[in-house]
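Handout, section B. The chain below has 319 residues.
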Amino acid sequence: MSLYSWHAQDYQNLATNIKKHSFNALLVHGAANSGRAELINELIKFALCQSPQDLNACGKCSSCILWNEGNHPDITSLVADSSEERKSLQIKVEQVREIIDFASKSRHLSPRKIIHIPDAMQLNLNSANALLKILEEPVPECIFILQTNNINKLLPTIKSRCFKYQLAHPRWSEALAVVQENNLDNAEFWLRYFHGEPLFIPPFENHELVQLRTTLLKPSIDAIFALVKELDPKRVGMAQLLDFMFKWLSDLLLVKQGSAANYFAEDTEDMHKLVVKINYDKLFNLQENLVFLTLWSEHPLNHKLQFENLLFKYQQIYV
């Protein structure tokens, strides 16, 4: 079973509820990079299994074989169309109507059908309202499984129709052990940077974040244009970029106060050269802009343009 130890009890709890037919819609919330996807996959496999053993999928029946091959007919996922530009990275009403049609059809071989929504934040007002209609009138032997990082940003009406479950967060020692298995330099630093979520993508494997750090160290107009041109919303989201900048500005203030940088300790010396040129009124104004954009980071704004404007404001804090 591909399941992390800190989610063992969560799995037992949720699988028991599925076995008891306790809900038609499940809303799982918790950190995305802490094994949530692995838990959901095991849960779905169990829910579809024709011959479950206790609370585990048998791994041998036709259903399990089809699941492992990735073409099970009794499950569908509702995700935004990633073939389009960022402005369309929301689940559309038409997509919800398609899964309603899927739910109404007979099962092929599993004891139940599954409709999986890996990121419920992709639901906009219209698609959420369309989904609400089927949640209010559940289809027998059909389970909706929704996931989210932030349950507070979902519509209250959606939350009210779901069985809500918050996943356990790994203890520091557990998370650190996972990170250290990957032989990552400065494992403790990066684990702090990613809020104790051990399954993060190391920044050196993320070209955009590496380039952003370089641009923040030397914020020239050419560097800003080059960075924005290379940004790929499918690889790095607006929320991740804003989080990176929040941490950078936080470290600048620490260095200004005579302390070492917390997140970017290796850049402390370069930050000393930057802070002597900072206009703090402009810096605090930039932080306010960051807060505003964070609130709208999941909204279909033109994120490239928004982030470009933010970087130019960052350049202007230096006098």
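Note. The two ends are 56 Å apart (CA to CA). Compare this with the example in section A.
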